[in-house]
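Justification of resources, computational component.

The compute hours requested in this renewal are based largely on the per-chain cost of generating structure records like the one below. Each record pairs the submitted sequence with a full structure-token output. That output is archived, and it is also reused by downstream analysis tasks.
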Amino acid sequence: MKKTILILLVCCPLFVLNAQSHSHAGAQPLTYPNIEGYVTLKTDLHQHTVFSDGNVWPTIRVAEALRENLDAISLTEHLEYQPHIKDIPHPNRNRSFELVMDEAKNHDLLIVHGSEITRSAPVGHSNALFISDANKLLAEKDATPFQEAKKQNAFVFWNHPYWSAQNPDGNPNLSDFQKERIKNGELHGIEVINSVDYSEESLALALEHNLTIMGTSDIHGLIDWDYTEKGNHRPITLVFAKEKSLESLKEALFAGRTVAIYNSLLVGKTEFLQPLIASSVQVSEAGYLKDKSILKVVLQNVSSSDLLFENQMPYTFYNQSPVFTIPAEGTLTLEIKTLEILETLDLKLKALGAFTAPKQQPTIQWKIDIE
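The structure output for this chain reads:
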């Protein structure tokens, strides 16, 4: 056996070179703060395995999620699109869920039973979450799986609505079919971030039709190779739940308490995005420099996203551009020219990487007591 391995290494140097071309840098655990009244759950609710058109076994998704400190995942296999069916025949469309549930049973990871309903344009793809039986969603008529999902009390969201294969112009065109689903209570959310793509038009639809804002990886390969080794973390949906449980997660999704995140991009409704950013930045020090009216403020970012800000105060900075970044899980020191000695300061910053509506960025304010 040892001789065989040596021959392979000598005869196949290109294989060795390829293997070394990946850095295999470990994914960092993701962290985001709770907001008042809610627990922040880190979720990725759109993923695939070999049980539809993915390239990994379901247990891999559990390992990836645990390493990244996610709170909940869902394997949303295509019901109708089954390119590996000859190699992995499975008449039971719940099989992927069963395997991942068994793998996660000894871990503090919530597994949401889900499936992807795949239809031709303009209907497109939708994920049904919290289902009880994926087999019952298989049907010939377009509306039938949505009706069955409603019977199962599922939360349904529209996947990559701006995908060019569904909409050649790259815009999420809301069809009469989808309008009917919304009207009937059969469509509740929409992806504004899918993989590396962000759609302002999808955010506009979410706000117009009161759809829950979602962000997902839609991963088919490995998280490492698609995201981590490129210096990114996977897109996720932060869900603000009353507690960490499937029941609370479901309630929060139906209530629309979410923020979609991809790296330094944060997208959500004002009432959730503003407190999230406010909680992500903590003041660890605030005091005047000796014999000067320059206030030193040390800001700590406790989240896994770089946070980009622009100064909105009447005061300018001594040492800093008015546009600056507080690195993820890092600190930044501001020296603020107040020109007089203050007892308190209203730190007012516009969050340039955050969006509450198309091209609308929130301004966040912290009241600082000065030492």
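The chain has two domains: 25-263, 281-369. DSSP finds ten helices and 20 strands in the chain.
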